[in-house]
Amino acid sequence: MNSFIDSLKRYFWAINIILISLCAYFSSQIFTDYLRQRWRVIPKVSLSSAREVTAPQLSQKRDLSFYSVITERNIFNSRAKDMVAEAELAELLGPVSESSLKVKLFGTVASRFPEFSFAVIQDIVSKKVDTYRLNDLVLNEAKVVKIEPKRVIILRDGKQESLLVFEEKEPLTSAAPARPAARKVRQVEENRYEIDRREFEASTSNLAELMTQARVVPNLKKGKVNGYKIFAIKPKSLYAKIGLKNGDVIERINGLEISGPEQALEIFQQLKAESYFQIDLLRRGRKETINYTVR
Questions:
Q1: Kindly report the CA angle at 230 between 110 and 120, in degrees rounded to 5?
Q2: Is residue 152 in some structural domain?
Q3: Which candidate, 244, 239, 237, places its Cα nearest to that of 283?
Q4: pLDDT at 279 over 70
């Protein structure tokens, strides 16, 4: 008896393996039978019936408003929405006619971001020169609705009118008057210039002409104006004579930051009486200072 028990103990591990194998076998059979029963109740759907269900959905026509999310999100980065709005505004207000408002448009700074654009306009009666942005009132009777490089559109009495850049017309005379001595701007050393007083006064007296000698746009940094970039400089203009180059970003004049059109106009008015001034600018990523002496 003891020998039989000893034999069972010796082969107990083998008996355990046989029992585990039998449990695994019967469990797999039960699971397989369960899956067969589940698969039998799934209905068969033919391809033809699937087409019959989905075809009407695919051919269903949507109203155009269903696709408005595409234009609202502007995923193609287009200006179609703005162009439509401008066209609708023009159709609503009628054609643009030249304005008879008693003002002179000296020039504009038109940015691709309309909120940073401005125009320099003079009241003919009071001779006051001021800057105007979008939605500002001119003479308290016309609202600025659009600023372009050489034109401003205003809304007056419910109609669109245009202000064109003022150009001084030279009087017609039978004989040309004697010309004064040549006016010069002289570079005395690197980033230092001497300007003849007559040349400086003549160049700055006609603001309208000065604003057409180059194009100026706001230079934006983190959504704020950080100076003004100058380009398209005419070869014989004052800008070219005093050493400014295309792409220069004018940041400060006489230490005063130019953060808006009002500051720029105020500084310009002050320069007329100055005998010395300096311009701090950014040129090709490098800061430079140019000094000027007016004699």
A1: 45
A2: yes
A3: 244
A4: yes
Helical H segments across the chain, by residue range: 2-10, 12-40, 47-59, 68-73, 80-93, 197-205, 207-211, 238-241, 261-271
Per-residue pLDDT reduced to its tens digit, 41-67: 445 544 444 444 444 444 454 443 444
- Contact in structure between 115 and 134 (CB atoms under 8 Å): yes
pLDDT digits (tens, 9 = 90+) for 105-129: 999 988 888 888 999 999 999 999 9
Give how many domains the chain has, as a whole number. 2
Per the CB < 8 A criterion, the answer to whether 126 and 173 are in contact is: no
Q: What is the CATH classification number for the domain harbouring 224?
A: 2.30.42.10
Q: Is the CB of residue 186 less than 8 Å from the CB of residue 194?
A: yes
213 occurs within a structural domain: yes
Spacing of C-alpha 202 from chain mean position: 35
Give the distance from CA 292 to its chain's centroid.
33
For residue 210, the one-letter residue type is L
